[in-house]
Amino acid sequence: MTDRRIRTLDDLVKAVGSDKTMAVPRVKPADWRVETTFPAYLQSAYIKTAETVYDVASRIAIKLQDCATRRGGWIIGVVAPLGNSGASSIAVHLAKVVAETGQRTLLLDANWRKRPTSQILLNSSQSRKLARGLCAVDLEGDVLDILVLRATQPTSELNALLSIVSTLDTMRMEYNCIIVDLSASEQTADIEAGASVVNEVVAVAEARRATTDALAGLLRKLPADKVTCVVLNKA
Asked: pLDDT digit string (tens) for 45-82?
């Protein structure tokens, strides 16, 4: 009775109180494939793909089909209550799925607390704004742009958030769809403060690690009508 960890999809449905749920099976190490088309300086979650995760991302994209019909500026946030839950992996697979429909798609790596992936990629910032680096990935005819934001010097959460929001305001008219890979809610208030900017949210909980309390804490920070899907990862 005291163990409130979410272990199964049924546990997740009870915790969420709706059927906006999906599960990603645990992927065996041998089933991950390293993407040679993705630059190696990106975070490791972006250069690995798995068929089972891709399949679930395709189902999420169907729920988010508005992003395929709108002309531009559709922003989807991907966030987890706890760090290292697999939100970045879900985000990159979802971005690939959308990009492969021919929509101009941007994956925004907003994990600004992570260490800079490459000094070549990230232009150093003389202000307290986040440094940025943009690369394009060829998806056999379609293109996925990836924009990385990182703090290259000490900065406050407020400055980081303003930099993320400013970037989204600038980029939203250039893309049909923007997938934002956000830091975990336990680490920063990015998603809570930026909820007015995103149009949809995909929440990610790791099986056997996330608790009902942690997930409920994340969902309380979000407008209920913007939560499109809650994913149980490593089920």
From this structure: 999 999 999 999 999 999 887 555 555 679 999 999 99
User: To which residue do tokens 């989807």 refer?
Assistant: 76
Q: Domain with 166 in it: what CATH number?
A: 3.40.50.300
Model confidence band, residue 1 (pLDDT cutoffs 50, 70, 90) = low
Quick: pLDDT tens for 139-161.
Answer: 988 999 999 999 888 888 889 99
d(CA 169, CA 173): 8
The position carrying tokens 């021919």 is 102
First vs last Cα of the chain: how many Å apart? 21
Global pTM value: 0.93
Which of 169, 156, 170 minimizes the C-alpha distance to 128? 156
- Please give the residue range of the domain that contains residue 156: 11-233
Q: How many CB atoms lie within 10 A of CB 96?
A: 24
Asked whether residue 229 is domain-assigned, the answer is: yes
Domains in the chain, number: 1
Considering the domain boundaries, does residue 128 fall inside one? yes
